[in-house]
Amino acid sequence: MHVLKCMIVDDEPLPLQLLADYVKKTPFLELVGTYNNPLDALNAVQQQQVDLVFLDIQMPELTGIAFTELVGDKCSVIFTTAYRNFALEGYELNVVDYLLKPIAFDRFLKAAGKALQLVSPAPAIAAAAIPATPVLFVKSDYKLVKIAVPDILYIEGLKEYIAIHTMTGKIVTLQNIKKMETVLPAAQFARVHRSFIVALNKIDAIERNMIHIKNDVIPIGELYKAAFMKQISGSSL
Question: What is the count of structural domains for the chain?
Answer without folding.
Answer: 2
